Amino acid sequence: QEEEVGLNLQVDLRVCDNPKELTVQGKVILPKGSLLTVGLWRKDGAENWEKMDEETVEVEMGGRFVSSLSPFKESMRDNVTDLESMQEILKNSYEVKVTSHFRNDKEQPQSVIKTVGEGGKKIAGEWVTDQGADGKAIIYSQKYQLNPSVHGPACFSFKPEKI
Known about the structure:
This protein is mainly beta. It is 12% helix and 48% strand. The longest helix is centred in the middle third of the chain and has 8 residues, at 83-90.
């Protein structure tokens, strides 16, 4: 009998050196080289969610991954000229989504498929869903509210708070 590959996903959203980028840092118990899709969504209106940015990242040694995403659409960036305009745009709720599929070696490197099994059959954990014939997938999401903090006339940050 084959041993399952456990999955424990942790994600933290930070505003680092560049206030126009949000850093998503996480750790998974997946093989080095596993591919994850990290996306940032913004609540726009009553219950509409709009994708702001998304990128595919590779899991590093120790299961760590990092993604830098923009909380602004290209069309919004020109309107961000000062703290007030940034606060206005960022006051809405955001959602971080991390997903990964294990159907075949077109979605993951062969070395990863060898470890997790075809279709991800060896992975198990809180964020793992069985998608029938498509195998297993990791689907994680967490909503955040960004709270601004001013540290001086040109220095400010936004502290993400899970909601």
